[in-house]
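Below sits our specimen:

——
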Amino acid sequence: MPESLDELIFKGEQLLFEKKFDRAIKIFRKILKSHPKERNVRKSIGTAYFELGKYEDALENFKIATEIEPPESEIWDYLGKIHLIKAEKEKALWCFNRVIEIDRKNYGDEFQDLIGYGIEEKKKKLEEEGIIPINPELEPKHIYCGKCGERILIDINTKFCRNCGGEI
């Protein structure tokens, strides 16, 4: 008797947990033949490829997973890590900022305020120690994107909206 979708996913996830990545990939590929839009399977196969150091295969699956709603921060986190490995810092930063935006939407403004608080405390300490100069022009601030209207936290290095990717 053929295994159900849930049974196959469970088996693949178990192999992933056991770090049997090649076997997990075989199961996930089997699932994707009949269910190509199964986001969690795309995420899992991307994770397996990532753990094996097959970053292009991981990137391909994570990108497809980002197109399937709702957005998930863990997928964007993996994309950011891959772009860092590939020395694509701008793309990595955009992905990591997307993680923050998704989590802020899921957990409210308190999440972003908490991140901002931690950054402010570290910055204040570095300023007091003379490690970084005090410059109000470099202060992070919130703006609204002219393209999508999303409220985003920006700093001097921010060039793109974390929500829609539009230029700031």
In short: Strands lie at 141-144, 151-154. The chain has a mean pLDDT of 80.
